[in-house]
Amino acid sequence: MVEHFIRFLKRETVQEAAWNGEVYRFRGKGTKEGFDKWFNEYAPKAPVCTSCGKLIFPGDKVGINGDEIMHLTMDCCPVGAFYAGEIDQNGQLIPAFEGGLSMGMESLRTGQGIYMTYDKKGVSVEHFDIPEVTQDEVSEALKQQRLTPPPTS
Ligand SMILES: [Zn+2]
User: pTM for this one?
Assistant: First the structure.
């Protein structure tokens, strides 16, 4: 039983490649030759994360802020509102929003709130109306938390 499981685990191999001094490891079932061919074709056209300087690979979710593109991870882009979609096989953005906007910019464009859910089928994005909250209510809530509201000018 254990031996069978170990044989099963060994079917997946780890491939390794380097680009600009950075080593990338991938787990998969392909051959070393197939992996090297794919990596050498993809790496030159891959987007480079402006936070960590590493390549962004197909299927990676990204955040966009102006000209910057980042891995949508806590290390590279802790602001989830920059979410803009994911990267395709050619290193191009598959936009989650019209015009390749980030979630935050889409919210400003539409005046609506946005929430995302992840499941096996992928990401689904929904817009919702933001409840009206007056400035007085915000100020009162901040006072109750003993915080100073920002100056209103
Ligand atoms: Zn990064």
Answer: 0.75
Tell me how far the alpha carbon of residue 12 lies from the centroid of ligand 1, in angstroms: 26
CA 139 to centroid of ligand 1, rounded, Å? 37
Contact 93, 100 (CB under 8 A): yes
Provide the residue ranges of all domains of the chain, joining segments of one domain with +: 1-45
Distance separating alpha carbons of residues 66 and 112, to the nearest angstrom:
21
Measured in degrees and rounded to the nearest 5, phi and psi for residue 122 equal 125, -150
CB 123 within 8 A of CB 96: yes
Burial label, 49 (beta-carbon count in 10 A; 0-12, 13-18, 19+): buried
Centre of ligand 1 from the C-alpha of residue 148, in Å: 35
Q: How far is the CA of 134 from the centre of ligand 1 (A)?
A: 38
Closest CA relative to residue 117, chosen from 109, 128, 108: 128
Q: 10-41 pLDDT, tens per residue? A: 567 788 999 999 999 988 888 889 899 999 99
* Interval between CA 109 and ligand 1 midpoint (Å): 27
Cα 50 to ligand 1 centroid, rounded to whole Å: 7
